Amino acid sequence: MTSSVLTDLRDGVVTVTINRPESLNALTRETLEGVGESVAKAATTARALIITGNDRSFSSGADLQGSVQGGGLGLDRANAIIRSLIDLPIPTIAAVSGPAAGIGCSLALACDYTVMSEESYLMLAFTKIGLMPDGGATALVAASAGRHRAMKMALTAQKVWAKEAADWGLASLVTPAGEHVSRAQEIAAQWAQGAPLAFAASKEAINAATLTELDDSFDRELKGQTDLRASKDFAEGVAAFIEKRGPNFSGE
C-alpha cells in the first residue's frame, strides 16, 4: 500500500509530499498525522522544509467521505499540526499547484514562504457545506491579506488565483506552470546554507508580532465548527457535495 505522505531528505532540505492523487490530495486523519510526524522530525534533521502535493493539486482539503463516516480530521490535532509548522525553527515553503483548499489552504499559509504555480489557487470552501474556516485560517488569511479579503474568501468561497493571491500578500512567488517545486527547491537550498539561529529568531519574532490571535482563533474555530458539524445544514452540505447538486440550507 502506497503511503499517503512521502518524505525525502537531501542536502539539508526535507520535502514532504501529500500523496493521495486520486482524491486531489484530500486529507484524512492518517494523512494529516503523517504530515505532522514529518514536520516534527524536520526540526532535528533538516535546515529547511518544503510541503507540496502533485501537479494537479496541493490539497483539496478534508476528505468529506471521512466526514460522512463521522470521523473527520480531529480539529484539535489538526490545529496542533498547523501550530507546530508555524513554530518550526527552520524556514518552510509551500509549493502549490492546483487547489490549496480548506485545511489545505491553512497548511500552505502556515508556511513562511508560499510558491504558487500560475494555475493554482487558494480557497476557503467551508460555507459551501455549512461550515466555517478552520485550521487557523481565520487568523492566517487576515494576518496576510486583511479583514475584508478574509471575509471575501470565507463568505463567497471563491477561488483566489495565484496572481491575485500574490497581490493580496498570500503568496510569496508565482511561477510558470510546473515550475513551483523546482523554484521552491532552489530557495530551500539557499536557506539550508544560511544561518539557522538567525532564521529561527526572525521567524519567532515575525510570527509573534503578526499571529497574536492564532491560538484564540483555534479555540473559536473549534467551538464554531463543533456546533456547525451537528447542524442539519452540514449534513445537507456534505450530501449535496457527494451527490453533485446544489445544497438546500435551512438554517437548522
Quick structural summary:
The protein is α/β, with parallel strands linked by helices and 252 residues long. Helix content is 50%, strand content 15%. β2, α1 and β3 form a beta-alpha-beta unit.
Task: Kindly name the structural category.
Answer: alpha/beta
Low-confidence stretches: 67-71
Judging from the principal axes of the Cα atoms, what is the shape? globular
- β-strand percent reads 15-25%
- Summarize the biggest pleated sheet: 6 strands, mixed
- Reading off the top of the CATH hierarchy, the class of the domain at 5-177 is best stated as Alpha Beta
Which strands sit side by side, in order, in the main sheet?
Answer: 1-2-3-4-6-9
Question: CATH fold name of the domain at 5-177, please?
Answer: 2-enoyl-CoA Hydratase, Chain A, domain 1
Question: C-alpha Rg, in Å?
Answer: 17 Å
- SSE succession: EEHEHHEEHEEHHEHEHHHH
How many helices in DSSP terms? 11
Mean of all residue-level pLDDT scores: 95
Counted beta strands: 9
CATH architecture of the domain at 5-177: Alpha-Beta Complex
Helix content: 40-55%
Kindly, what is the distance between the CA atoms of the first and last residues, rounded to a whole number of angstroms?
A: 41 Å
The CATH homologous superfamily name of the domain at 5-177 equals 2-enoyl-CoA Hydratase, Chain A, domain 1
Pfam families: ECH_1
Protein name: Enoyl-CoA hydratase
GO molecular function, one term: catalytic activity
Family: Belongs to the enoyl-CoA hydratase/isomerase family.
